[in-house]
Give the backbone structure.
Amino acid sequence: MTSLTVQLDAALSSPAPTIFGAISIDLPGRQINLLDGAASLTFNGRNYTGRDPVYGTLSAISNLTDGMGNEAPRLSITLLPASDAAAADLAGPDMQGSVVTIYFGAVERTTGQVVPNPHLLFVGELDVPFLTAGENMRELEYEVASIFERFFADDEGARLSDGFHQSIWPGEKGFAFQTGVPQGVYWGVEAPPRPVTNTGLGFGGIGGVFGGDMWLLNQ
């Protein structure tokens, strides 16, 4: 069973389908919607073109690699920025984490319209940029991590407190009026050892196996 729509499956089964790849990058305050060639196509409410007037063109998309162990699937994209300023902007730290979406689709030759619906291949986020510049060339390669990368985020630094809780959910005051909590719960750090108390209780059982003091945790 295919995950493609009936229309797209039929188009790809034709003798010579017209196919395309599309990528969208949701930068802070701006969207980049690029095709892998010179064209203009509209789907999912976005217009994809072969060249962005500010950020240039798409040069390459690497093969998607499976993650191993504690790594999520990754790929890389290469952009050809339109200017030095665009290259510096794209490589800036504010761009890290921007959502990247990649589609594969086909075009109806007689109408020039996109066959419903392009297949979603990958959803991830910008990770690490590599800017390369030389004589008459300028390219920016970005490593893109799958959205599954978020599953490997740990809870180090998390606190079971009102301040931390409201930093995640502003205005949610579930911890604001907690009183009389007998025991602290530690998140992201190892709990300190609990103190012990000598009770002075003695058990003179058989052979004195339980003779002497009994040590109890002081709850």
User: Anything to note?
Assistant: The radius of gyration is 29 Å. The mean pLDDT is 80. Helices lie at 6-12, 84-90, 162-168.
